[in-house]
Amino acid sequence: MDFGFSDVQVQVQTLARKILDDKVSPATLARYDEYQQERFDRDLWRTLLGAGLPGVAIAERHGGMGLGFTELGLFIEELGRSLAPVPVLTHCVAAMLPLQQFAPAALQERVLPAAARGDVLLTGAFWWGQPGVPDDPVDATLEAGGLRLRGCCEGVPFALQADKVLLAARHADGTAIVLLDTAAEGVGMSPMQVTHFEPHYRVELQDVLVPAADIVCHEGGEALLDWTRERCIAALCAQQLGAADYAMRMAASYTSEREQFGVPIATFQAVGHRMADCYIDVECLRLCAYQAISMLNEGGDATTEVQIAKIWAGDVGHRVSYACQHVHGGTGIDRDYPLWRYCLWLRYNEMTLGNSSAHSADLGSRLAAGQALFN
Amino acid sequence: MKIQFTEAQRALRDELRAYFSQMMTPELRAECERDMGEGGGPLWREALARMGRDGWIGLGWPEEYGGRSLSPLEQFVFVEEVMRAGYPFPFLTTESVGPTLAEHGNDWIREHIVPAILAGELLVSIGYSEPAAGTDLAALQTTAVRDGDDWIINGQKMWTSLAHFCDYTWLAVRTDPDAPKKHKGITMFLVPNSDPGWSCTPVHTLGGVRTNATFYDNIRVGDDHRVGEVNGGWKLITSQLNRERLSLINFGPISELFNRVVQWARETTLPGGAAVASQPWVQANFARCRTLIECMKLIVYKQSWAMTEGTLGMADASAAKVYGSEGFIEVYRYLGEVVGQAGLLRSDSAGADALAGKIERLYRTSSIITFGGGTNEIQRDIISAAGLWMPRASR
Question: Which of B59, B107, B242, B390 could make a disulfide contact with B384, Cβ separation 3.0–4.6 Å?
Fold first, then answer.
């Protein structure tokens, strides 16, 4: 049992943090508030691609670094710390990883190296699922040339910016997974305005033909969906950890300097203790998120551990967000001070892919069925 | 980073689990129940000595003390398993005072006392609190005064738990009444409970557990019974308390209790025939407990790992103590709700059930843990100062 970081892991963290510290600041983030601009920093994205970070968990033969999900998770934690406007969760976790795991070799060779270079931007339509209520697949019919799709996918981040969307399509014989070309005839996009200003879209498909070469699997797509959902959840937990830790440290530092009654307000036990509770909360999230990531990295069953991490990510995000705002007083909600953006992200990560209550209900029913006990 | 047991650690856990399931005979279990889960009885003593002979107590200790030189993580797995088996393991002696004695003790202590602890033959109670010194421990008034080569000790301690069957007391005394800062005038001693000047009277608590007031009347000890520097006792106290905070949070018994209650709820039916576990509120309680205990497990494993690496921080030891102690109480409550009215019956009552009776007792005994080992308010002060660098009010 090893809770430490390897040299390579420290290098990934350090590299990511250096680039993000250089390129992301409250001033750069302010450009995207209220959808003034599309929240996608392409200059930062090119720098990250140049450093190889989006391909950290992609095999070297596909142009990646050849490391694992743990390193990708540590990179994503840094993105949470900085709230960087880049499509890492969608491109890397919701698309590249499942393609690398499930796609036929020819499709992998065609897409993954280009995706690792950044020549092709990918996304996945897997972000609206809840425990027991997965994303509804679009309808499909089998044709000689491939699959014909109709229907719509809700809440696909970066769909308009992406070249291809990985999505599930249900047809008479089962569930297929396809890599949809966003330029194909019949694809429409309507922007959705989300609480944290990330570009999300409703993707509408009117009799869109996906050629056979872009089909990841014809049937049995549920396995890919489950596999991908767990990794997306773990990635959200890592992002939540980075954001919660950063917001907490901002509050600790603010209360150490802000004086009332002639003393820093941090010296009041009521304030110190609330921050101590945040510290414990963030530590719990850290441990559960790292455990989930580490177990997924090893490839074994991590259903319970991923679910528990998401419950913590939801609860901790909520509690830390409100505690940090509260001890900041009015400053915490002032848009000239950077805390408010963290609160929006903490909320988004809390509710996405299953909130704490929904996951708890699912965990409870699994326990009642004799699963997920301690061993 | 790899947050999973290694094969060797898994094998060790399985070996320990098998060992303890065989060690916990019905007679020993009954004796431990009778002693309110505290130990001290003859079968309990015999089992402790057997664990010592079989080399388990010193698993993670250096070989020079009779240990096996494995890491603190393996040591923790041992304590987790022995407690999961229902044996009230004297972890304060072995896991918190023992290591402090090994680190700071003189030759006599390291050659005689520490090996006897690892052999399961010597138990130490802790003498810190006094009637007027609790959270403000440095206000303690028990004294040791030099008399030639010896020291003469006088005073009274409170809450000296387990003292009535321990061999020594790890005693904090004032040796410099004029020290400008009161915590700089404190020295640590190891005082034999067999001394004629030593006495104790029981204090009975809500949980049914006995603790003690202990009295020190002109006890003469040699200077070899002193531990650490004269007037340098405070850092030994804080080092011991850091270890104690961690060893108080043991998730072995609580994960076992959780599994048993879930199993019970799956097998027990309501009047209509549905299983207790089929009720949504029961499932909600189970999910809460499962989520909470999972983190308890990770916190203690991480700290055992940090001890191996030599990086255990004060904030994290305090965080474990706060989280664990408040978590235990919550879990006992949620599981108590599941077992229902049976959870109000004392285990020797008509109609009592062993599992529910255990929860009845745990709920009563658990109120000590939020203030024992350093009250949680002080722990939160430590966390905000040492973990988040926040300034503290002067006291």
Answer: B390
- Residue A351 domain-assigned? yes
Q: What is the CATH number of the domain that holds A109?
A: 1.10.540.10
B48 and B167 fall within a common domain: no
What is the tally of structural domains in chain A?
A: 3
Q: Which of A275, A287, A368 sits opposite B266 (nearest CB)?
A: A368
For helices A69-82 and A7-23, angle between their N-to-C axes, nearest 10 degrees? 30
Residue B25 token pair: 């005979």
State which H helix or E strand residue A121 sits in. Answer: none
Answer yes or no: is pLDDT of A329 > 80: yes
Same domain, B131 and B256: no
Q: Answer whether A284 sits within 8 Å of B299, measured CB to CB.
A: yes
A 16-75 residues with CB < 8 A to B = 70
- Residue B70 to residues A85, A125, B91, B189, B281, Cα–Cα distance (Å): 47, 49, 18, 29, 43
Q: What percentage of chain B carries pLDDT values higher than 70?
A: 100
Residue A299 within a domain:
yes
Q: Is A290 on the interface with B (CB under 8 A)?
A: yes
Is the CB of A330 inside 8 Å of chain B's CB atoms? no
Are A332 and A339 spatial neighbours (Cβ–Cβ below 8 Å)?
Answer: yes
Subunit contact B259:A374, Cβ cutoff 8 A: yes
Number of residues written out for chain A: 375
Are residues B29 and A317 in contact, defined by beta-carbon separation less than 8 angstroms?
Answer: no
- What is the pLDDT, as a whole number, of residue B7? 94
What is the span of the domain harbouring residue A156? Answer: 138-219
B393 three-class SS:
coil
Q: Give the range among A149-158, B77-86, B210-219, B246-255 with minimum mean pLDDT.
A: B246-255
Q: How far is A359 from chain B (nearest CA, A)?
A: 9
When CB atoms are compared, the residue of B1, B298, B379 closest to A4 is B1
Residues B273 and B375 placed together within one structural domain of the fold = yes
Give pLDDT tens digits for B247-259.
778 889 999 999 9
Say which residue the tokens 């203690």 belong to.
B300
Residues of A in contact with B277 (CB under 8 A): 367-368
Same domain (yes/no): B255, B357: yes
Contacts of B327 in chain A (CB under 8 A): none
B262 near A CB under 8 A: yes
Q: What is the pLDDT of residue A142?
A: 94
Pairing type for strands B143-147 and B210-222 reads unpaired
Cβ-based contacts of B319 with chain A (< 8 Å): 276, 279-280, 283
Is B244 known to be catalytic?
yes
Whether the CB of A265 is below 8 Å from some CB of chain B: the reply is: no
Backbone phi, psi, residue B82, to 5°: -65, -35
Catalytic residue among B33, B244, B267, B330, which?
B244
On whether any CB of chain B is under 8 Å from the CB of A280, the answer is: yes
The ipTM of this complex is 0.95
CATH number at residue B140: 2.40.110.10
Q: Does B4 touch chain A (CB under 8 A)?
A: yes
* Same domain membership, residue B256 and residue B226: no
- The neighbour count for residue B349, using CB atoms within 10 Å, is 12
C-beta of residue A352 within 8 angstroms of C-beta of residue A236:
yes
Amino acid at residue number A146: G
Structurally, chain B folds into a number of domains equal to 3
